[in-house]
Amino acid sequence: MAAKFLGAHMPTGKGLPKSVSALREIGGNALQVFTSNPRSWSGKPVSPEAAEAFRAAVAGADVEVALASHDTYLVNLCAESEEIVAKSRAALIEELTRCDALGIPVAVSHIGARMSRSDEEAEALAVEGILHVLDRAPGSACLLMETTAGQGSSLNADLGQIGRIMKAAGGPERLGVCLDTCHVFAAGYDIRTEAGWRSLLDEFESEIGLDRLRLIHVNDSQKPLGSRKDRHAHIGQGEIGMECFEILVNLVELENVPMTLETPDAETSHGANLATLQGLRRGSA
Which domains are present in the chain? Predict the structure, then answer.
């Protein structure tokens, strides 16, 4: 079976409910949104009226829509500044709280960068922060650690590191992973062939467990394999190439994992990129 849920990160300038209809207009059924300004530490709480309007828009769609959010880009659970650590924890608690109100089951986070800390110190702080957040965020919304390109001192470019953090945290049910195709490619995982995908999935299962993979960001890469540069490109127009994405949307193991585009020019190009992905699916979807 091919991927069942394909969609995109949609703009929310016209309101969260409009992002649902905009997604359906381009034929998508997997939606990622920002629930607040991604470059601000704190967002407004979700009012009961806003929550009801978004939930109604999702329920009123003509198909089932898989939902996800992305947290603020400012979060760093292992920052050298205690103030930044505290703000990061508070921001993630707020994000999961908004998700719970809106009925969004997962929130994606880059988690942080180690700066001058050792990997061991940074991982320990990340674990401490994750447990702090999950203990204090109400409801059932899950926090997803996103694979990164390894740019700068970003954590989680290596699946083994994600696995260590997951294990050290005790594997809570509300902790999962979001895999980004551009990021893993830039981090050195060659997913341009079926053999490359099999290798990555084997490592993922061994280090983390495929049951923890709850969202995939589908992006080509402007930069070459192992560049450790996070630069997204349109599907089939970057260094990864079309074969990777044809393999991805037809992997039986991942058929139920929602896949969302984060490709450039959302307003004008998400429809074309989504149509490309949908055209790569074989058999029923």
Answer: 6-280 (3.20.20.150)
